[in-house]
Write a structure and sequence with these properties.
By secondary structure, the protein is mainly α. It contains 9 helices and no strands.
Length: 195
């Protein structure tokens, strides 16, 4: 049996697997084509160029992260904020190369503007911002600017994720305690009441 028919989804999925394994540094249209058993010009029927290919992989990852955020349940928006920070850090640590690729593409902030910089990033930022909006509306946060509050929380989550990805050989319990300490400091510092 031969190779499966070439599609944009297959090209993006194969590129994602290559980035996931080795990072972006070794990725080129030639390397993807070689992995797929085709010539590089064959890929132009499915992607515009190298940047389009990497953006498609980043889009896939932003959607995966947004879906993980959307799966966070519960009635208390502050508890959902805490859990989304844990989800963000876990996503980064599980997929470090893909995480780094994602943040070549910035969200549009504030989210309400038209013509976002990178739609999938903006959608993910909006999903993370939803419980922040709810917590502000309920009077649970001392920060009343939802963009500032969301950026503060994202900065904390991104910062702890980057520390964990720096290559320190943290025992699992130390890594978990670091995440929880950041959550307690940042979320606790923004809350009017910490249940």
């Amino acid at each position: 049996m031969g190779r499966p028919p070439l599609t944009r989804a297959l090209v993006v999925d194969r590129t994602r697997a290559l980035v996931r394994a080795d990072g972006v540094g070794g990725i080129s249209l030639r390397s993807v084509a070689r992995d797929l058993g085709v010539t590089a010009p064959a890929l132009y029927a499915y992607v515009t160029d190298y940047d389009d290919l990497l953006a498609a992989v980043a889009e896939t990852e932003f959607r995966r992260l947004r879906d993980r955020f959307s799966a966070v349940g519960g009635d208390d928006p502050v508890d959902r904020i805490r859990e989304m920070i844990r989800v963000y850090v876990a996503h980064a640590c599980e997929e470090p190369h893909l995480h780094r690729l994602m943040f070549r593409y910035a969200p549009q902030v504030p989210v309400a503007t038209v013509d976002p910089t990178f739609g999938p990033a903006t959608d993910t930022f909006a999903a993370a911002r939803a419980p922040v909006d709810e917590a502000i509306a309920a009077g649970r946060l001392t920060v009343i600017d939802p963009v500032l509050a969301s950026l503060t929380l994202w900065s904390a989550a991104h910062g702890v994720a980057e520390v964990l990805l720096m290559g320190f050989d943290f025992p699992e319990d130390v890594a978990r305690d670091l995440v929880e300490s950041v959550i307690a400091a940042v979320v606790g510092g923004m809350c009017r009441d910490v249940p």
